[in-house]
Design a protein that fits this description.
About 75% of the residues lie in helices and about 0% in strands. It has about 240 residues and is mainly α. The C terminus is likely disordered.
């Protein structure tokens, strides 16, 4: 349906984003635990990946806080107030966990100490669990409100704001990360000729270095209630 026929936001593109976060965060604890003690080189690779997905999540939530929630509170305060308060509170909890992850990453990458690695993996599990809860509630409670009260132009502004400060050199990997489960539809039509082929290859190559395979488990294969599986079982 065109924006002219329906001026309100089409939130379907949020689900591939959430699938990406579910997949990437569920895999992180086992990736950290698979790093052999004192393997500082491998620790740097995994730490770089953790920092990347944390950066993407931070910008995603900052865009929601700046654009999405104020629009809902302005247009539907009675419906949205308690929902937004809950989701903003969850953003705060996630920010605290992200800060703890960042602090523990610095200590772990200094020498890949196994004790530091286990402490980091434990915090990453807490972060994944909190993120799963948050995204589930956002899908259930917030997105239906967005579809009734937020204009498509505002939704597009939020999406653009979330990507604005992402370093351009990681753009193809990020798009490939989204396309891995979301397909070509997650790419704006005007960029499909450029990124439709490049981005999946960029992400596959990136996954070879991080996960040891170009095809890591998908979001329906990992997560809460399932083992936090690591593709790489260990290193010599």
């Amino acid at each position: 349906m065109s924006a002219k026929a329906n001026p309100y936001a089409d939130t379907r593109d949020m689900y591939p984003v959430h699938a990406m976060f579910r997949r990437e965060y569920a895999l992180l604890p086992a990736l950290v635990r698979a790093v052999a003690a004192k393997d500082a080189e491998r620790a740097q690779v995994v730490a770089g990946h953790v920092r990347l997905v944390n950066l993407i999540l931070h910008h995603h939530h900052a865009a929601e806080d700046a654009t999405l929630w104020p629009a809902l509170l302005k247009r539907a305060p009675r419906e949205a107030d308690s929902v937004i308060r809950l989701l903003e509170g969850q953003h705060g909890v996630l920010d605290v966990l992200l800060d703890e992850v960042s602090a523990r990453l610095d200590g772990w990458t200094d020498g890949a100490d196994s004790g530091d690695g286990e402490a980091l993996a434990t915090v990453l599990q807490r972060l994944a669990a909190a993120l799963y809860e948050h995204m589930g509630l956002e899908e259930k409670l917030a997105l239906p409100l967005v579809e009734r009260h937020v204009f498509a132009t505002e939704w597009e502004e939020m999406v653009a704001a979330g990507a604005a400060d992402i370093p351009p050199e990681i753009g193809p990997v990020l798009v490939g990360m989204l396309m891995y489960e979301g397909g070509l539809e997650v790419v704006p039509p005007e960029m499909r000729d450029v990124l439709g082929e490049i981005a999946p290859k960029a992400y596959a190559g990136y996954c070879e270095g991080v996960h040891g395979t170009p095809t890591p488990p998908r979001s329906d294969q990992v997560g809460l209630g399932l083992p936090y599986v690591g593709v790489i079982a260990g290193r010599e």
